[in-house]
Design a protein that fits this description.
Largest sheet of chain B: none
Number of helices of chain A: 5
Order of helices and strands of chain A: HHHHH
Distance between the termini of chain B: 61 Å
Number of strands of chain B: 0
Structural class of chain B: mainly alpha
CATH superfamily of chain B: Di-heme elbow motif domain
Helix content of chain B: 55-70%
Distance between the termini of chain A: 80 Å
Largest sheet of chain A: none
Largest interface: A-B, 13 and 16 residues
CATH architecture of the largest domain in chain A: Orthogonal Bundle
CATH architecture of chain B: Orthogonal Bundle
Oligomer: heterodimer
CATH superfamily of the largest domain in chain A: Flavocytochrome C3, Chain A
Helix content of chain A: 25-40%
Number of strands of chain A: 0
Number of domains of chain B: 1
CATH class of chain B: Mainly Alpha
Shape of chain A: extended
């Protein structure tokens, strides 16, 4: 019983002191090092509401972007505000479906979208490819939060060929 | 009942033997102002968003959906209210629309769309009514604010300027042909042209 009491007192003491210790620690530590991992909260302390970042604009230039690798789902070069893609409607398909491309002059969804998982072609978009935004996204006019060092295959092969020459 | 009608008619058909002609003319004029003004004021009250969304059918369905669209909140803070798009501005057309709207009072009293499920079941028909009206009047309610003559195609995106300078300029299409579902969610669009 006595040891139990001791344990209770000890834990209460720890509970009472730890916030003070924590705040001392937080004040002492350099904010840069505490938040060295890039987060959307930047260096804002945990108990402070961060001033929200500016919401960037969607790029709406209608210019096709290079794909970083052949299988990359192409990004959407226009705004899709309030485009409905649900069980009733698919707004994207009113331009990008096979039947609509002549009128819209938009690129048709690729043939892979008509394939079911056994590789057979269906007459319509396969249900597993119905929700466009699972793969295709708009791009924002924003500075990347972290540096992207992605190098595409083409550049890699070029570099390799160059190094062989030497 | 018949006697009352007869007495009423006899009174009305007899010339006034007591009031002066001036009093009758001026009195009639003032009464006219009050009745006509009252009628139009009452009409205008039914032409406000507060009136529209005083029914939960409107507030919980269409108004709630509209809140996320550009016609409710946008960069310049100009917004459209229900009657801006759904009631014609010209007086005769407005009265015609108000008479049609008596059916909506019926619907409200008998709960035609008093649940979300019932509303969704009716949505295609309700949407078609509005599409038909806007198609017939060449999207007049859109054009009350959006004037083709003052559109700056250079400020529009490439696709938008192409469509507006061809199909819309020719009169081949009107606003509602392409811009369906811009202020509310769409119904099932199966079989609708362009979908």
């Amino acid at each position: 019983m006595k040891s139990f009491n001791l344990a209770v007192i000890a834990s209460l003491l720890v509970l009472a002191v730890s916030p003070i210790m924590y705040s001392l620690n937080a004040n002492a530590a350099d904010k840069e090092t505490v938040n060295s991992v890039a987060t959307l909260r930047d260096a804002t302390p945990i108990d402070v509401q961060k001033e929200p970042n500016r919401i960037p604009q969607v790029i709406n230039k209608d210019i096709k972007k290079t794909r970083n690798y052949p299988m990359q789902p192409p990004v959407i070069p226009h705004t899709i505000r309030s485009y409905e893609v649900n069980k009733y409607n698919n707004k994207c398909m009113s331009c990008h479906s096979r039947q609509r491309t002549e009128k819209s002059q938009a690129p048709m969804v690729s043939v892979t979208h008509f394939m079911n998982r056994d590789g057979n072609f269906l007459a319509e978009i396969s249900p597993r490819r119905y929700f466009c935004n699972q793969c295709h996204v708009t791009q924002l006019d924003a500075k990347p939060l972290v540096e992207n060092t992605f190098t595409d295959m083409h550049s890699l092969m070029k570099a390799k060929a160059k190094s062989k020459e030497h | 009942m018949k006697n009352i009608l007869i007495i009423g008619w006899k009174t009305l058909s007899k010339p006034s033997g007591y009031y002066s002609l001036g009093a009758l003319v001026i009195g009639g004029f003032i009464a006219g102002i009050i009745f006509w003004g009252g009628f139009n004021t009452a009409l205008e009250v039914t032409n406000t968003e507060e009136f529209c969304i005083s029914c939960h059918e409107m507030e919980n369905n269409v108004y709630e959906e509209m809140k996320t669209t550009i016609h409710f909140s946008n960069r310049s803070g100009v917004r459209a209210t229900c009657p801006d798009c759904h009631v014609p501005h010209a007086w005769t057309d407005k009265i015609a629309r108000k008479m049609q709207a008596s059916k909506e009072v019926w619907g409200m009293l008998f709960g035609t769309i008093d649940t979300r499920e019932k509303f969704l079941a009716h949505r295609r028909g309700l949407a078609e009514n509005e599409w038909r009206r806007l198609k017939a009047n060449d999207s007049l309610e859109c054009r009350n604010c959006h004037n083709f003559d003052y559109m700056d195609f250079t400020e529009q995106s490439e696709r938008a300027s192409y469509q507006h300078s061809t199909a819309l300029a020719d009169g081949e299409k009107t606003c509602i042909d392409c811009h369906k579902g811009i202020a509310h969610k769409l119904p099932d669009m199966k079989g609708v042209e362009g979908w």
